[in-house]
């Protein structure tokens, strides 16, 4: 078995697999180390709601046969109101999607090693030169990429990322049949992806229903485990308790039944990314926090992150005398901030403002959105300060004060 490659990638999720696809297509020797077994892949890591948009499908050549349902609209719900925006989308069968990325990369020459749990970087003279996995097995590369998500065993030990516990988000999702997707008093969710802002269901977060055809849908929720969550949380409630509460109280689920084996759990970090690379090393995908305040769309962010890392690696490796030093790999961070998550700090503030708001403010937001044109919300989601200001009102001053206290430690 070969033990030396141009690039070693830890993690076969969307970011790692896309990075491998791009590098293999350029003719580089690349190996991907994946914790799960090949026969069961993906199992534990099958954690995404898998909602995406046509731009991602087209940009990365994703085939139609991994799509569960094409959608026509996105819906925002509050406790008593809703807003509908016409927006084509797609709900993917996430397992099929991930298997496609692996198969496509393999066809171009990428090597995958399954049952390969990455444990530590191998360093020489302070630089990473390879990866240790499964205890004592080793593989070496000119460049190493950590795409393992929040676990980040390489990035953490190299002191590249700082994933703070107070910004750790957890999520749970089930797939159901028997859902009333056009219940009177609610938005019609046929061919729709819906996000709900309601602290009774997801305190300090949001819940969702993604239609997957006929009377089936993906249903889940997530929240950040911080003091905003604690402000609205029920004592001793777990994330499973919140989902059960929603299922018991929402009439759309009265006849719903969980589909066997269709449960997904996951986590992510919602914070500024900080440092993402060093000598011969890059951290990509969910290993580095990213954010889209309203729609999530983590798939596209991960795929773009993998592509930018592949471009940075190529910029060094195609020149035989150009060492992949931190200085020469800095193009990755430049591309990340320009292409993957522009205006990231402003967009994070938008996210935090959403979660700080009270339930009655969510109802008011829905009424405002129905009066505004769709471009206002889109611009706010991209981090436009003018658009965000348009969504705010004089009554939001106390909320802004709480956010400032939270961010800067005022009164602690």
TrEMBL record:
- GO molecular function terms listed in the Swiss-Prot or TrEMBL record: FAD binding
Coiled coil location: none
- From which domain of life does this come? Archaea
Record-annotated FAD-binding domain positions: 5-305
A Pfam family: FAD_binding_3
Instruction: Identify the InterPro entries for this entry.
Output: Dggglyphlred_Halo (IPR054884), FAD-bd (IPR002938), FAD/NAD-bd_sf (IPR036188), Geranylgeranyl_reductase (IPR050407)
Official protein name in the record: NAD(P)/FAD-dependent oxidoreductase
Species of the source? Natrarchaeobius chitinivorans
């Amino acid at each position: 078995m070969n033990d030396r490659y141009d690039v070693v990638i830890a993690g076969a999720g969307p970011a790692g697999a896309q990075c491998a696809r791009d590098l293999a297509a350029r003719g580089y020797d690349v190996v991907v180390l994946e914790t799960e077994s090949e026969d069961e892949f993906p199992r534990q890591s099958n954690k995404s709601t898998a909602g995406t948009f046509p731009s991602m499908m087209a940009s990365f050549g994703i085939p139609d046969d991994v799509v569960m349902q094409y959608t026509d609209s996105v819906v925002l719900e509050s406790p008593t109101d809703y807003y509908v925006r016409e927006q084509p989308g797609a709900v993917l069968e996430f397992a099929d999607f991930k298997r496609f990325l692996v198969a496509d990369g393999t066809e171009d020459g990428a090597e995958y090693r399954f049952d390969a749990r990455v444990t530590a970087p191998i360093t020489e003279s302070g630089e990473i030169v390879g990866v240790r996995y499964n205890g004592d097995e080793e593989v070496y590369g000119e460049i190493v990429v950590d795409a393992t998500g929040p676990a980040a065993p390489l990035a953490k030990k190299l002191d590249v990322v700082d994933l703070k516990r107070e910004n750790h988000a957890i999520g749970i999702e089930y797939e159901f049949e028997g859902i009333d997707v056009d219940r009177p008093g609610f938005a019609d969710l046929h061919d729709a992806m819906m996000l709900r802002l309601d602290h009774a269901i997801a305190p300090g977060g949001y819940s969702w229903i993604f239609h997957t055809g006929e009377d089936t849908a993906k249903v889940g929720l997530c929240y950040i485990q911080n003091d905003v969550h604690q402000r609205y949380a029920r004592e001793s409630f777990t994330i499973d308790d919140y989902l059960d509460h929603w299922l018991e109280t929402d009439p759309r689920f009265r006849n719903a039944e969980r589909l066997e084996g269709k449960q997904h759990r996951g986590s992510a970090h919602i914070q500024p990314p900080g440092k993402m690379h060093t000598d011969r090393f890059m951290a990509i995908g969910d290993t580095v926090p990213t954010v889209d305040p309203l729609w999530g769309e983590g798939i596209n962010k991960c795929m773009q992150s993998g592509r930018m890392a592949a471009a940075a690696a190529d910029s060094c490796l195609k020149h035989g005398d150009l060492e992949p030093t931190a200085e020469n790999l800095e193009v990755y961070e430049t591309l990340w901030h320009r292409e993957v998550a522009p205006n990231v700090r402003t967009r994070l503030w938008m996210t935090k403002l959403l979660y700080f708001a009270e339930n009655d403010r969510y109802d008011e937001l829905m009424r405002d959105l129905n009066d505004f044109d769709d471009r206002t919300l889109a611009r706010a989601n991209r981090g436009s300060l003018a658009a965000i200001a348009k969504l705010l009102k004089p009554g939001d001053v106390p909320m802004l004060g709480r956010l400032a206290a939270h961010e800067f430690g005022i009164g602690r």
